[in-house]
Amino acid sequence: MIKTIIINKQLSKILISFLLILSLLAASTLTLYHYQHPQAIKVSTDPKTDKKYIKWVEFNASYPAMEKALSLDVKSHTKPVQLHWVELLSYLAAKYGGNFKKYKSKDMDALAEKLNNGETMEQLTAQMKYYNYYYEAYDAILGNFVGEYDIQTKDPDNENGKQWEKKYGLKVFSPIAKGYSFTHYDDFGTGRTFGYARKHLGNDLMGSIGTPIIAVESGIIEVMGWNMYGGWRIGIRSFDQKRYYYYAHLRKDRPFHTDLYEGRIVKAGDVIGYLGMTGYSTRENVNNIKTPHLHFGMQIIFDESQKEGVNELWIDVYSIVNLLQKSRSSVVKDEETRDYYRAYDIIEPNSGYDF
């Protein structure tokens, strides 16, 4: 009897070990499947409506690819065939499996040639299983960056005058004002330890304290105030609700532009605050960051449940920051208020908001 019990215990241990191994293998296979097949990440959050949305995005479109796609889009704007930069990038993402380390300029040239010769994107992507996934993801990230707009420029006939010009192209701006230098590197995903171990979900732009910080895109201020991690910070939501821009570690004492408040609408190119080194403190208005810099982050929101919590989607904005250097907002200082203001105004005809 005792011998039988010992054998049964040994068999039980072997069975448990076997089941544990099977579970680990299943989890590993599922993780690999999710990584290789992005559409598998779409999940249903509402069993009543079977509502589906993208749960995971890894954005790594390179600067050269974005710069060329943008150039082709702008140059073709008045031609019979309009080349849309989001479509071009989405096609290449599907071709490369999302890995833009494979990017070759000739691939985009070949795609543009086919489109200019009469083939449609629908025809060219008919056999691309994940093109629609990449298009939905990339459109959420970049879709509102390019379009028609009116902007003030210098009047050549009046030294201090301004005139309005209609343009087509980038209608978003660098987060750092024109004339102010900064340095950065791709630090997305690096480790952070204050409070708890976590990944860095943005791009740090190192600069001088007081540098005017610019609203990249027009939108509504959702958050403005102190956070123990980000210090004085401001969060702006795009009008289509898909992008949430996060600007953190703003200047001590005078972090924000005095005209701002939660709920206010801001335009792309507006001054929203000033670079600093606040944060890493439970006490407000404390400089506990070692190097003055702006933490700039972009969160993508396909479903409102992703706004806060474990399902947040933050993308690597390093290449986007590089691209935005093509569009920088000039600023002027009001000596009375000590605040900086944009030098040239902008109007976005299709924004849906009357500024």
Automatic annotation (TrEMBL):
Which UniProt keywords are listed?
Hydrolase, Signal
Q: Which SUPFAM superfamilies match?
A: Duplicated hybrid motif
Q: Which InterPro entries match?
A: Cell_wall_metabolism_enzyme, Dup_hybrid_motif, M23ase_b-sheet_dom
Gene3D superfamilies to which the protein is assigned, alphabetical = Glucose Permease (Domain IIA) (2.70.70.10)
Return the Pfam families for the record.
Peptidase_M23
Q: What would you give as a GO molecular function for this chain, any one?
A: metalloendopeptidase activity
Report domain M23ase beta-sheet core positions. Answer: 199-299
Q: Which domain of life is it from?
A: Bacteria
Name recorded for this polypeptide: Murein DD-endopeptidase MepM/ murein hydrolase activator NlpD
Give the source species: Ruminiclostridium sufflavum DSM 19573
